Amino acid sequence: MLDVQGLQAHYGTSQALFNVNLSIGSGQVATLLGRNGMGKTTTINSIMGIVKPSGGSLVFDGAQLKGQASFKIANLGIGLVPEGRQIFPNLSVRENLVATASNHLGQSTPWTLERVFELFPELQTRLTSMGNLLSGGEQQMLAIGRALMTNPKLLILDEATEGLAPLVRKRIWEALDRIRQTGLSILIVDKNLHDLVRLADRHFIIQRGETVWSGTSGELMADEAARGTYLGL
Ligand code: ATP
After folding, report:
1. Residues contacting residue 13 through CB under 8 Å, at least 6 positions apart
2. How remote is the CA of residue 33 from the centroid of ligand 1, in Å?
3. For the chain, how big is the Rg over CA atoms in Å?
4. DSSP labels for 161-198?
5. Distance (Å, rounded) from C-alpha 9 to C-alpha 46?
6. Ligand 1 test: best mutation among 35, 38, 159, most atoms within 8 Å of CB?
7. What is the pTM of this model?
8. Is the confidence at residue 233, as pLDDT, over 90?
């Protein structure tokens, strides 16, 4: 589904990514882990074409992403739940959900408002509220719902539960588990390893812009040295 090899990226003359490698199979859940400032958001933004990669290869569903505009990458079937959620503040919940909705890839059981409300009933009760009046948890549910409404093949979440209360975090993990059961591929950046190892098939750890470890949840839990060295856990 997604295969990133030797990814490099720069901010001006400063190199942020040196050699990021990761791959996600169809229907798989993968995580991108690493301490603060190691390049997780830069990797995601490079996949989305928000940061222009300066080297390497990024193949999604057979298409090379490198050099493509962000809207084209999104149209290929990648839905992003960005860091900080980036809800449209002056649109209502309903408008946020439908503004970018589409099923141009012709998914057989597309995400609709009804399905999103089934996943997050909280959103239905706030249908006419403006985006900027929602709580952090509601905004995150809305950001996930908005991405699902584009009917992607791959959902990417940057900081899936950052800054959320434990009960809301639990709701997000439950929702991601249900989304996974629909067969959607998911790439998650988050710090809650405990929840991630339950949800994900594979993990990729980056350190200073380079993939330094990859493996299954079982391998990550067994590798105390890797967790200590690369994640401080
Ligand atoms: P965090 O968990 O803190 O969000 P991260 O792993 O997502 O961190 P990035 O935000 O991708 O890391 O940052 C990787 C490196 O790139 C860091 O050294 C950071 O200072 C640098 N960087 C990120 N954004 C920019 C920018 N817009 N301009 C210049 N340097 C940047």
Report:
1. none
2. 14
3. 17
4. TTT--HHHHHHHHHHHHHHHHTT-EEEEE-S-HHHHHH
5. 7
6. 38
7. 0.96
8. no
The pLDDT of residue 118 is 97
Helices (H), 48-199: 70-75, 93-99, 113-119, 121-125, 136-148, 166-181, 193-199
User: Which residue in this structure is represented by tokens 């998911």?
Assistant: 186
Question: Residue 19 has what DSSP assignment?
Answer: E
Residue type, 198: R
Rounded to whole angstroms, how far apart are CA atoms 34 and 191? 8
- Cα of 106 from ligand 1 centre, angstroms: 36
Q: Which CATH architecture has domain 2-231?
A: 3-Layer(aba) Sandwich (3.40)
By most ligand atoms within 8 Å of CB, the mutation choice from 7, 14, 19, 42 for ligand 1 is 42
pLDDT digits (tens, 9 = 90+) for 134-167: 999 999 999 999 999 999 999 999 999 999 999 9
Closest residue by Cα to residue 227 from 177, 188, 191:
191
- Secondary structure class of 117 (helix, strand, coil): helix
pLDDT at site 38: 97
Fill in the amino acid letter for 139: Q
Task: Provide the CB-side half-sphere exposure for 75 (13 A, CA).
Answer: 6
pLDDT in tens, 171-214: 999 999 999 999 999 999 999 999 999 999 999 999 999 999 99
List the domain boundaries for the chain: 2-231
CA distance 149 to 126: 17
